[in-house]
């Protein structure tokens, strides 16, 4: 029997003992370390950095990567972990995504063996925190329009530009930064747009000219850390460049990993919200009866639970395909588009069950809904994923 009342289809029975063990260990961490404190962290806009070593000890950093001190877990195991973390808070799930699915994956997929050996073990252990710089103030959904650039001067690269909405940047020890490089400097002549090609660089954050500042007054993802980064003639050695997969193929492969985690994570926010509403409805009395005994309340709880079950089955289907090696790129867009926008509607509806109490930090639905405003935007907006799927259906590229 499932441990969650919203699991109307006993989806839990579809997981192996190993998968359930991963889920339960992360859930225990969330219950013990996140739930008692998250309302204060969110209210005070605090990223609890003391949790990062514990996340590393759980094997969460780069957990889906093999070797280099990483846990080598399956896609489904990784997904279950992300669902449980986001049931605590999406901002803390994002920490694992930025570290593992973005920064570590960038080095793992695009780096040299020397780069992997140098950085990945220390990132897996949490000794070094990483960040991933692609988005810019004027380049979000269209990263090909980025302005950050690097060029060769002798045996060095010189990096200039700006990045924005970069998770963990102000506490990171290393940054993976994507910049436009003259094709002749990049070693890929003929492959660049307007004579340039996008390349990734490993940038230690103590390099002169690198500055990162947290973005303030956020209304979402308050228990996490997003930053602006400026590069003012940042000088890097020749071997700072990631040698594999020139062009946007490199960062896009990392975004695919992060999007996959969102498919599961969003359902964690939704499930936590509905279970909070269910508990409240069974305890709160109105007109001499518990809220849960009224037809309108039951309809809300049923409709929300049905959507959670569908979203979880979608996540599981995509996770199994990823583990089998049969996944197609558009499937990630199916999951991210559906589950992010479904989850935010569930959280908003769950808040209505709580009435006025639902706008306080005592209950999670509105906090989850606020966080999902960011989740729905980052790693591809609804519009971007709609066009990806539209192209899959019609064969026509409608981005321009």
Automatic annotation (TrEMBL):
It comes from the Bacteria. Its EC number is 1.3.8.6. Residues 252-393 form the Acyl-CoA dehydrogenase/oxidase C-terminal domain. Residues 16-127 form the Acyl-CoA dehydrogenase/oxidase N-terminal domain. Pathway: Amino-acid metabolism; lysine degradation; Amino-acid metabolism; tryptophan metabolism. Residues 131-234 form the Acyl-CoA oxidase/dehydrogenase middle domain. Transmembrane segments: none annotated. PROSITE patterns: ACYL_COA_DH_1 (PS00072). It catalyses: glutaryl-CoA + oxidized [electron-transfer flavoprotein] + 2 H(+) = (2E)-butenoyl-CoA + reduced [electron-transfer flavoprotein] + CO2. InterPro entries: Acyl-CoA_DH_CS, Acyl-CoA_Oxase/DH_mid-dom, Acyl-CoA_Oxase/DH_mid-dom_sf, AcylCo_DH-like_C, AcylCo_DH/oxidase_C, AcylCoA_DH/ox_N, AcylCoA_DH/ox_N_sf, AcylCoA_DH/oxidase_NM_dom_sf. Gene3D superfamilies: Acyl-CoA dehydrogenase/oxidase, N-terminal domain (1.10.540.10), Butyryl-CoA Dehydrogenase, subunit A, domain 2 (2.40.110.10), Butyryl-CoA Dehydrogenase, subunit A, domain 3 (1.20.140.10). GO terms for biological process: fatty acid beta-oxidation using acyl-CoA dehydrogenase; fatty-acyl-CoA biosynthetic process. Keywords: FAD, Flavoprotein, Oxidoreductase, Transit peptide. Its cofactor is FAD. GO terms for molecular function: fatty-acyl-CoA binding; flavin adenine dinucleotide binding; glutaryl-CoA dehydrogenase activity. Belongs to the acyl-CoA dehydrogenase family. This is glutaryl-CoA dehydrogenase (ETF). It comes from Rothia koreensis. The lineage of its organism: Bacteria, Bacillati, Actinomycetota, Actinomycetes, Micrococcales.
């Amino acid at each position: 029997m499932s441990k969650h009342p919203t699991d109307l289809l006993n989806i839990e029975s579809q997981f192996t003992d190993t998968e359930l063990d991963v889920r339960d260990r992360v859930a225990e961490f969330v219950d013990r370390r996140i739930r008692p404190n998250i309302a204060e962290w969110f209210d005070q806009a605090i990223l609890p950095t003391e949790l990062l070593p514990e996340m590393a000890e759980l094997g969460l950093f780069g957990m889906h990567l093999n070797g280099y001190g990483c846990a080598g877990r399956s896609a489904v195991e990784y997904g279950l972990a992300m669902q449980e973390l986001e049931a605590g808070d999406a901002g803390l799930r994002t920490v694992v995504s930025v570290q593992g699915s973005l920064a570590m994956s960038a080095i793992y997929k695009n780096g040299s063996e020397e780069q992997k050996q140098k950085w990945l073990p220390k990132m897996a252990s949490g000794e070094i925190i990483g960040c991933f710089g692609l988005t810019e103030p004027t380049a979000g959904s269209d990263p090909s329009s980025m302005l950050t650039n690097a060029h060769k001067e002798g045996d060095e690269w010189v990096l200039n530009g700006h990045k924005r909405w970069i998770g963990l940047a102000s506490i990171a020890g290393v940054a993976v930064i994507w910049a436009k490089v003259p094709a002749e400097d990049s070693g890929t002549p003929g492959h660049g747009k307007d004579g340039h090609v996008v390349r990734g660089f490993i940038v230690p954050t103590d390099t002169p000219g690198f500055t990162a500042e947290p973005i303030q007054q956020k209304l979402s993802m308050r228990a996490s850390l997003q930053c602006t980064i400026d590069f003012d003639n940042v000088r890097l050695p020749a071997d700072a460049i990631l040698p594999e997969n020139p062009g946007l193929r490199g960062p896009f492969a990392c975004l695919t990993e992060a999007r996959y985690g969102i498919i599961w994570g969003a359902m964690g926010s939704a499930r936590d919200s509905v279970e909070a509403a269910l508990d409240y409805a069974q305890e709160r009395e109105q007109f001499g009866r518990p809220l849960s005994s009224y037809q309108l309340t039951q309809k809300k709880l049923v409709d929300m639970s049905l959507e959670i079950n569908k979203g979880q089955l979608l996540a599981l289907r995509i996770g199994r395909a990823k583990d089998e090696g049969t996944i197609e790129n558009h499937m990630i867009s199916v999951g991210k588009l559906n589950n992010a926008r479904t989850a935010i509607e569930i959280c908003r509806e769950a808040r209505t069950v709580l009435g006025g109490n639902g706008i306080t930090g005592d209950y999670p639905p509105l906090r989850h809904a606020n966080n999902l405003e960011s989740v729905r935007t980052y790693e591809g907006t609804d519009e971007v994923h709609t066009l990806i799927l539209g192209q899959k259906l019609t064969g026509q590229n409608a981005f321009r």
